[in-house]
Specification:
CATH topology of chain A: Rossmann fold
Helix content of chain B: over 70%
Number of helices of chain B: 11
CATH architecture of chain A: 3-Layer(aba) Sandwich
Structural class of chain A: alpha/beta
Largest interface: A-B, 29 and 25 residues
Number of domains of chain A: 1
Oligomer: heterodimer
Number of strands of chain A: 8
Structural class of chain B: mainly alpha
Low-confidence stretches of chain B: none
Number of domains of chain B: 1
Helix content of chain A: 25-40%
Radius of gyration of chain A: 19 Å
Order of helices and strands of chain B: HHHHHHHHHHH
Strand content of chain B: under 5%
CATH superfamily of chain A: P-loop containing nucleotide triphosphate hydrolases
């Protein structure tokens, strides 16, 4: 039971800076290795169940990359990551949305991506609509939504996905004050229920319930 | 497994719904497309090039083959761009990504069944004797889907990294169109080239359907062979996709 819920051991992740895509570039790079950019180097981290971790650091310091690695969207070049439980990543809120479809139709798609069962989705749709406060817009295509409205809908879906590990990537930059307060309240509620939360941000957060702050450089 | 099917279902519906959202004629295109393509090609190849098809009305002969061709071609063309169009899903969400190209191909299955219905209607209009066995044609959807999906999975990945594959697909499709007995009867192929039909799953399906509709014979061997080759291609497609899908998230 004392096993960490997320265990990151000595991971290194590199990205291609310039992708060797065309034939001309292939030749130019044939004798020198492709230029790579190291985002994360020899990074280790253990997170226990129920912890609230804040990850800060400047742009390009690897906050999002770290989340992608934990979720398994991409693999590390070196090292290994072990996670236990259901991970719900909120990396880009609008990622699963299709602009032509209505809010309601998009709830179905997005909730499925987050791993919610169909019968449950049908049950929680009214709750999602209520939390998002988008009653009047729910049957309008997403392309007519404002940025704030889109993220409100996405966040509202995510909070009903019953995660064990919740990864939140800089989403407090959007949404109005009222919705922000509502969301923070919800996150505190998660914390109380024992959900492990990782939150990345550029701001200096000084909440009392933060267990650990990790600074990436 | 249940969740996998839910993903497939939801994404297929998403694709079908969004396809017709900004369209005036909407789903009517499902009917217009096969009729129009058949009409154009039948004019050229019947009236100008005067192709002979054992006394079978050329329009209906063409329609029966184009049904499969349209599915194959449209499936491949949708699949090849599916990952590029859904870049955000690839790089920012976590679920089995082969769902994306597969659901795009799946979204063309209703079109196929509508096409089959159109074919049945024209068979009646042309005074063909409709027998109960004609319904066997429904099973051709399996090899057709697996073959298209296997190739579609492969091209969706490769095209996401190297757009050159978009060009290669054009040649690939052109070759497949002409080596499949769509415009001409499989009986016209000289003996030494029969192998082209023998190992091409699409040609096997079309030959099977020609035999069933026009020659009253049920060639189970053709459909089984097609299913066998299609499944092998499909399995290779899935393995290839699974192997490289994580890399794609970095490269796309």
């Amino acid at each position: 039971m004392n096993q960490p819920i997320i265990q990151i051991e000595n991971i290194t992740k590199q990205y291609y800076l310039e992708k060797p895509r065309t034939l001309k570039k292939w030749f130019r790079h044939l004798f020198s290795p492709f230029e790579k950019f190291t985002v994360i180097k020899n990074f280790s981290l253990r997170i226990n169940k129920g912890e609230f971790i804040v990850i800060t650091g400047p742009n390009g310091s690897g906050k999002t990359t770290l989340f992608k690695l934990i979720t398994g969207i991409t693999n590390p070049d070196k090292g290994k990551i072990v996670t236990r439980g259901k991970i719900v990543p909120l990396i880009e809120l609008s990622a699963g949305f299709n602009a032509e479809l209505t809010g309601r139709e998009n709830i179905m798609v997005n909730a499925t991506i987050l791993g919610i069962e169909k019968t449950r989705i049908l049950q929680i749709i009214p709750k999602i609509i209520k939390f998002s406060g988008l009653h009047n817009f729910i049957d309008v295509p997403i392309k007519r939504y404002s940025t704030g409205m889109t993220s409100r809908l996405a966040f509202s879906i995510a909070i009903y996905s019953k995660p064990d590990i919740f990864l939140i990537d800089e989403i407090f930059a959007v949404g109005d004050e009222r919705f922000r307060k509502k969301s923070i309240k919800k996150i505190i509620e998660f914390k109380r229920k024992g959900v492990t939360i990782l939150l990345s941000t550029n701001y200096n957060m000084k909440w009392s319930f933060i267990d650990k702050t990790i600074i990436l450089k | 497994m249940k969740f996998y099917l839910q993903l497939l279902e939801v994404f297929t519906i998403r694709e079908i719904k969004s396809r017709y959202k900004a369209s005036l004629l909407g789903p009517l295109w499902i009917i217009i497309y096969p009729l129009l393509t058949t009409l154009i090609l039948s004019f050229i190849f019947e009236k100008i090039l005067k192709i002979k098809t054992e006394g079978i009305p050329y329009f209906i002969f063409l329609l029966s083959g184009l049904l499969y061709w349209n599915f194959f071609q449209q499936g491949i063309l949708l699949a090849k761009d599916s990952l590029i169009w859904n870049r955000d899903l690839m790089t920012k969400t976590s679920f089995p990504k082969e769902i994306i190209p597969l659901s795009f191909i799946f979204s063309k299955i209703p079109d196929f069944f509508v096409g089959l219905l159109i074919l049945f209607i024209f068979l009646i209009l042309y005074n063909f004797k409709i027998r109960f066995e004609i319904l066997i044609l429904i099973i051709t959807v399996f090899p057709m889907f697996f073959f298209t999906a296997g190739i579609g999975l492969f091209f969706s990945l490769t095209n996401a990294i190297f757009r050159d594959f978009g060009r290669i697909i054009e040649f690939f499709l052109m070759i497949f169109f002409y080596i499949s007995p769509i415009l001409y009867s499989e009986n016209l192929i000289p003996q030494k080239y029969q192998i082209i039909v023998g190992i091409n799953p699409l040609a096997l399906i079309i030959s099977f359907s020609h035999d069933l509709i026009f020659r009253n014979s049920i060639r189970i061997d053709l459909i089984m062979m097609s299913l066998f080759i299609s499944l092998i291609i499909f399995i290779f497609g899935v393995i290839f996709f699974r192997k490289f899908e994580k890399k794609i998230a970095d490269l796309i």
